[in-house]
Design brief:
Length: about 200
């Protein structure tokens, strides 16, 4: 059985099925499906787009909200400012921001959750502590600081322990380590990067 142009468009474009999945439906090879895609001049997804669709089968895991109030406009500005100043912009696959100040972390989380509609459950956290700290106690501190977001211990990566050394003010500021917020999504990463001043 050969797929029609209408069926291929529905499966590949509308429903975002992969060539492999369509080949299974029609019990044929992937090469055969690729042949029909070319024949019907259907725009092929790039590998990056195909991978994005595979890991986000229900669509984007975010929903950008246009600020409706002065408070939301302020939150958008503050969040972008924090990301511009403190965020890791080199990583192409995820949005990351690290800081020692719980207030800054909470502000950035509000920006991500309220402006971009990110599910709190999809957030991940990295914690870096010094070797003279108690990792469990430090983790408990951060879980308490983030309780309004219902963040669970399972959302934390393995704690990174750095050899302790005296480095003045920074050592005092980081007595509860450095917490890094992670949200892996290449599409949202590009959107936020494009919002920053050149």
């Amino acid at each position: 059985m050969e797929p029609s142009e209408e069926v291929l468009n529905k499966l590949y474009i509308e429903r975002k099925h992969s060539v492999s999945e369509i080949a299974k439906i029609f019990k044929c090879s992937e090469n055969r499906i690729n042949y029909w895609i070319r024949k019907f001049k259907i725009q092929k997804r790039s590998l990056a787009d195909a991978m994005y669709t595979k890991y986000n089968p229900d669509g984007d895991p975010f929903l950008i909200k246009e600020p409706q109030t002065l408070e939301e406009a302020k939150l958008l500005g503050l969040g972008l400012g924090l990301y511009w100043g403190e965020g890791n912009k080199k990583n192409r696959n995820s949005i990351r921001l690290g800081n020692t100040d719980p207030r800054m972390i909470r502000m950035f989380l509000r920006f991500m959750v309220d402006i971009f509609g990110i599910s709190k459950k999809k957030l991940r956290f990295g914690l870096q502590v010094f070797s003279d700290m108690q990792p469990k106690r430090t983790l408990t501190f951060w879980l308490g600081e983030l309780k309004e977001f219902q963040i669970k211990e399972e959302q934390f990566f393995k704690i990174t322990v750095t050899p302790s050394r005296s480095i003045g003010n920074y050592r005092e500021k980081s007595k509860f380590g450095v917490l890094t917020v992670h949200f892996a999504n290449t599409k949202l990463k590009k959107i936020i990067d494009n919002m920053l001043p050149l």
